[in-house]
Amino acid sequence: MRKSSLTVVVMVMFFTMMGVAFALEQAAPAKEAPPAAAPASQNLADSLGLKGLVKGLLVGAFVGLAVSFLGFMKDKDAAKKWDFHQAAPTLIWGAIVGALAGLGQKNITDFDGLKDNAALVIIAELIGKAGFRNGAPVIGNVVSALIGRKS
Length: 151
Hints:
mainly alpha
């Protein structure tokens, strides 16, 4: 499959999934004002925000995958093939950012949330790569100085 047709297929899938998420969000019944006292039967997962965490984790992983695919598509080399191993770090960063947003009860399923999450994934990945590339040699030197160099 050529790169351009693959791009069209992925973009159609991406926008379809965004549309479904938006439709489900709009179809959900409006929440009423919470009662004065929380009910005793409140689920522990809801009180800890675990539902939002899981939802954010999944949506963030999807956004990370979309960001990594767009990074792949910007390359003009037609011989380059999609490699999941190169996309995995971006997917992981997306899952982390999405999980943190979900834990903080942020809505990341609407367009603005997806857009903000994608920007945060790119920023987090760049900061992580810069920190690893610049920090790893320093940490390696410190550790080798503390434990002594092996010959």
